[in-house]
Each structure stands twice: as structure tokens, then as C-alpha cells.
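Researcher: Here's the sequence for the chain we discussed earlier.
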Amino acid sequence: MYGATTCGTAAADVPMGGRRADPVRPSADRETVEDNPTWRSIGLATMAAMLVVSLRRVGSRAFEAHCQWPRFHPLNERHLPVSHHPLIMVESVRQVAVALAAHLPRPAGNLEPVSVRLGLSDAGPPLESGDATDVLLRIALRDVEVEDGRCVAHRLTADFLHAGERFASCAMRLARPALHAPEAPGTASLPGMLYPSAAAVGAAAEPDVLLARGPQGRMAIAPRDLGHPVFLAGRPSCLPALAVLEAGRQATLLCCGRPAAAIRGLSVDLYGAVPLTGAVVELTSSSLGPRFAVLTAGRVAATGGVGLLPA
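Model: Thanks. This is the structure I predict for it:
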């Protein structure tokens, strides 16, 4: 569900479509393997971007990951103590998903996040005043979809624990991404668009801002930094799910006037490719909280929601 305010409801089941969901049958030599992924093995540009320190299997479909979240992560504020950015949690699950590719039956190319549900406890993520926060992820691999002997989609659910206490949960579905995004106007073709301040959208710095706003209030995705090390790592041709989720988060905070600390749930579903710039973001309200839609060439390419603490 989107707009979740508790850990349990945020990691709701993601619709899986019509393909066959095959059980995972790990090979015998992987039953007790402990993996220590490297930043290169999970496709990161630098060691500084790595959040997952180790990964081990604890059951046929269950894994545990040890994560370290640095206080000086690019997305975090610079004041003390720091409350970790929610996208750090989502990125941790994505990195685990990449590391787990070796445990899947012949993945069909690079599977990328197409659906994300994140829910936080009322207390929110742990605060950090030192160098880094140690976090344990308990992960379940579910709904592995196989076509012609190749994995074409799967889902991970993860619980986040710090000092033995669960503070968040996440569900992520990964599948083959859309190859091309519809044409969308670049920022130069959107007259009168202005960038909000980083503080207005709950960002730590100006390069983290992903939105520009028009004089009538229309918002469009227009990353200030097209080489952003987190949202646009590797300079992708289309906007990744994590960047779309962050754009929805920023749009909600900008329009609602709420602080970033009020967020207790985030969700996004991709239906097609989203161009790097020019897609329009529209907000609506619902009984579960603010909803956002991302439109490209007049069609909905993504939808999502944001859960907020009561004002």
C-alpha cells in the first residue's frame, strides 16, 4: 500500500501479472555461501556508494544483509544528529537485489526496480551522530517469474533492524525495464520553470533537486545534476524508479509544506520508461495521503504515494 504509516502495511504484496511464479531451487553449493559483494560486483561507480557490507543465505529463500549507512552519505543533511534519507533504505534493497542475481535461475538481462513500497515506524529511521549506522536487513526472495528457463521478474521483501528493533520495511519488484521513453520536452522548452530551494523539497543540497515549477504551479522533472551519483548513477537513458520515487517525494513536500521528517511511507509503480527531463508531475489527495502521477507525452508513466505523519 502507499501512504503507509507503519512498517507492516508498507511492504504490501505487489501485483505480479500473469506469468508463472516458480519456486527458487538454489544449488547445493550455495546453501551456506556467505557473499561479500564489492562495489564493482554490484555495478556501483565508486566504493563510497556501497551500502551493503555482507550478504548470507539463512534459508532457501531467506537472506540477511549487513549494511552500513554513512552519516555523510550524499543524500543526508549535514546537521547532527542526522536522520537517514529514506532513499538510502530503498537503495540498500536495490543493491541486495543486484547481489542476489547469482541466486536466480538465469536472469534475463538486468532486472531493475519497477515497483517499490517503503514504510517507516512512527519513530522513523535511527539517528546518527558518529561515522555510520549499522543496519541488519532480513530479506525474503518471492514470486520468481520464469519464461523459457530465464528469470524475468521477482520480488524482495525486507525488514530493517537497528539495535534489534525493526524500524522500516520495504517491498521491491524487479523486472525487465522499458527500453525507450516517449519524447518529452526538455527544460528549455518549458518556459517560466523555476527551481525550488533544496530545503523546500526536503533535499540536502541544490544538486539533489529533481523538480522545476512553472508560474501556474505545474511541476516537471528536471534534475539539476544529470550526473547525480545516486539518482542517476551511471548516466541512464531513462529515469530509474528510485529517481521517480524521489521526484514524487519532493513534489509532495513542496506542495504540502511539510518537513522531510514527516514522511512515513513512499511508493511508486512504473508503467513505462520516464525520460530524464520534462515529464510532468501531478498531485492529488486520497484518504491514504497524497498521490502523484508522472505523465509523459500525455500518458501516465508512473504513479505513487507518500504517507505523512498527522499535521
